[in-house]
Amino acid sequence: MTPQSFLLSAELADHVRRSTDPPDDVVADLVAETAAMTAAGDGRPTYQVAPEQAAFLTLLTRIAGARWAVEIGTFTGLSALAVARGLPEDGGLLCLDRDAHWTDVARRYWARAGVAERIELRLGEAAELLAALPVRPTFDLAFVDADKTGYAGYVDALHPRMHPGGLLVLDNTLRAGRVLDPQDDDDRAIAALNAALAADDRFDTVLLPLANGLTLLRVR
Ligand SMILES: C[S@@+](CC[C@H](N)C(=O)[O-])C[C@H]1O[C@@H](n2cnc3c(N)ncnc32)[C@H](O)[C@@H]1O
Q1: Which of 19, 24, 87, 121 has the largest count of CB atoms under 10 Å?
Q2: Which PANTHER family match (predicted)?
């Protein structure tokens, strides 16, 4: 889990969590199991979205009135669970990830939460899985949380597959502040993408300082 936003003191981070819908038992257990896995070196603790971000994703999915959604980067499934919970009964979420071991954990929790029938998981390289999707408006919401150097390509591939008015949500777009002083290829890719998106007339663009930075792109 993103331990706390780098923008907040520990006290304010606690206050944010106490002032947001609390995780239910399914989310609490998923967070605990993922923390135990990552403590043992299986994945990284920062991979999972924070609980308040999960609550925000559910709210955002509902506000957007999204019926069909896609996620790139699923890991143990918390963000997907959050989006799926915001979809109507007859909606659906397509999850793309290349790791079967982590997404097996996700499948268990989706089943426990009663949203498994709303989620389809496809395993493989995200760019290839996206390219194989029909090029027509399909999705109302997309959540991108995979390899940072891939984000620009994912945005381009998603754009023609989104309904007008649809919402793309990009995670980790502040890189813990390193967008101001990029240290590696991931930081450089996101810093360049942030600058490009601010000038991109395909979208209404806002970078929210939530968690590690969350960029919202509304398709014009
Ligand atoms: C930060 S984690 C996603 C966390 C997840 N959203 C959550 O809330 O738990 C990134 C995930 O992206 C996947 N991933 C990274 N690069 C990928 C690629 N090129 N194609 C497919 N999946 C990829 C990894 O396997 C990993 O599960």
Answers
A1: 87
A2: CAFFEOYL-COA O-METHYLTRANSFERASE 3-RELATED, O-METHYLTRANSFERASE-RELATED
Pocket test for ligand 1, best of 30, 98, 175 (most atoms within 8 A of CB): 98
Ligand 1 pocket, 81 CB below 6 A?
no
CATH number of the domain to which 125 belongs: 3.40.50.150
Q: How many angstroms does the Cα of residue 122 sit away from the middle of ligand 1?
A: 12
User: Looking up tokens 């939530």, which residue turns up?
Assistant: 210
Residue 87 lies in a domain: yes
Torsion of CA 60, 54, 23, 37, to 10 degrees: 160
Distance 17 CA to ligand 1 centre (A): 24
Q: What is the DSSP letter of 21?
A: -
Rounded to the nearest 5°, which phi and psi values hold at 132?
-80, -10
Tell me the ipTM for this assembly.
0.99
Q: For 10-21, how does the pLDDT look when each residue is reduced to its tens digit (9 = 90+)?
A: 999 999 999 999
Mean local confidence (pLDDT), 24-29: 98
Residue 2 in this model has a pLDDT that exceeds 90: no
- Which 3 state secondary structure label does DSSP give 168? strand
Q: Does the residue 2 lie in any domain?
A: no
Tell me whether residue 196 is in a domain: yes
Considering its fold, how many domains does the chain have in total?
1
Q: Which domain holds residue 170?
A: 10-219
Establish if 77 belongs to a structural domain.
yes
